[in-house]
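Researcher: Here's a chain I'd like modeled. Treat it as a single chain, no partners, no ligands.
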Amino acid sequence: MLQSTLALSFLLIAVSSNLAMAINKERKLPETLSRGWGDDITWVQTYEEGLFQAKQNNKPLMVIHHLDECQYSQALKKVFAEHNAIQEMAQNEFVMLNLRHETQDKNLSPDGQYVPRIMFIDPSLTVRADLIGKYSNRKYTYEPEDMETLEGNMKKALRLLQTEL
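Model: Modeled as a single isolated chain. Structure tokens:
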């Protein structure tokens, strides 16, 4: 009798311990605005807030359109988050927004609504159609091997800020 009570007690402890571990695994940490694109970057929540901050702070707005379930978005996010120069410029020189949905502003999809897509808006609230990636059929897309192009476009956005505005 004592042995079966002890065995049942051990069994209940093991089951409750495994159940507690399973519950803890199911809990997800609250999602931050970075969504993995750079935790040290200050991200705005909405496109409208981004436009306001860009104008207010005289900084270009960088808008990253992506989807969580898109393998291309995930690959770009990984290299973007690991690229020191891009992260530094994003932290200090840009207003940053990443979107998992389209905005109502059709200026942000001049050649279609695809992901990933990165666009720049200057403080005069002009979408910079001259800051594009290297693909003619998806002008605003960047692939993981295009970080040098993206970094160059970020630098151009900052130079244009000084020369045009």
